[in-house]
Amino acid sequence: MRIARTTRAALAVAATLAALSGLGAGPAAAAGPAAPASRSLPAGTHFFIDPASKAAQQAVTDLRAGDTAGAAAMAKLASWPVARWFTGTADPAQTTREMAELQAKAALLRQTPVAVAYNIPGRDCSQYSAGGAADSAQYAAWVDALAQGIGRRQTVVVLEPDGLALSPAFCGGTAQQQADRLAETNAAVDRLERQSGALVYLDGGHSSWQNVGTMAALLDASGVARAQGFFLNVSNYQRDADLVRYGTLVAKCTWYLANTPGAAADDCANQYWPQADADAWYAAHVPADARLPHFVVDSSRNGQGPWTPTAQYPDPQTWCNPPARGLGTRPTADTGVPLLDAYLWIKVPGESDGSCTRGTAGGTDPEYGGVDPVAGAWWPEQAHSLAAQASPALRFNTDPFARKG
To answer: Which positions are catalytic?
Structure first.
């Protein structure tokens, strides 16, 4: 059988990734001296690419099954950096070890790891990804363990997806639970920012969720002024342009709320104002040289934008495994937007959002005609669909193990 040149190249990389799957698996000491810490993400930053990622493993599985086209697609996907999630399933000592191992692997390649901290008490408002630490004290101990594993190396920390936009106040929680959430987030920011290389980003929701003022007030109350900034669109599908616009407004509103006596969240121009009116409002209320929080955007699944259902459902759950989505902008710190530090693939492409039913009975997802995998489970069919629908079209990362100079 004659195999196309691009397929042969991708399969070669699949083999390379498989061969390198044990890279840096030893203790953190094997990584050598810590890289110089920086409180910014230069445009030339190279994010860590895991040789043993789920996409790399799928490439090998597809190749062994004789699916060369599928293997090629998964090898291309595996050549791009994806975040590593820490979900609190291990004891603190194990959390430290696992983070240290990630640091060791990244250090060998002089790459910057992206780590997601996802263990806050009452996470996901008891929905598909429910769980988290038992209480504030347990959470603080876990965050401390995570920080110890980071050491001094530059690390992007995505702190608690949905932790603010879906905090207790928005799902029937008590005032005390909301106060606890804000206190937990503040304490986590302070502990993680003690690590000289940590770049901590807080939950900023996305452009079709909370109002700009609401989100800015939550960020201000959670310590964003002491962090690098906030993140947008984790596990969602909003378009880059809408997210950049939203993030810029949120950043400006945080400054306004923190620096204007008597300011209220509803004062801020929001994402629904006419653009010219909103720009004029911020020009009048926020100095051009104001120091603003930065943000990052999760572009792992927004290549086709948000899903518009073609059928009627009691609850369409447009955020949950929508069909025919695609990979979006490739991970990069070279964004050309002053406040946008990076496009990142934070949600692991190919992991399910949960066993969606769209409000129907029977436990199946009518869009797929079966039961979706549980939240966080690898779903090969979805991974292949995201690759096939990618925009821009998925290509091979031609310099996957590039070193920062």
So the answer is: 124, 162, 353
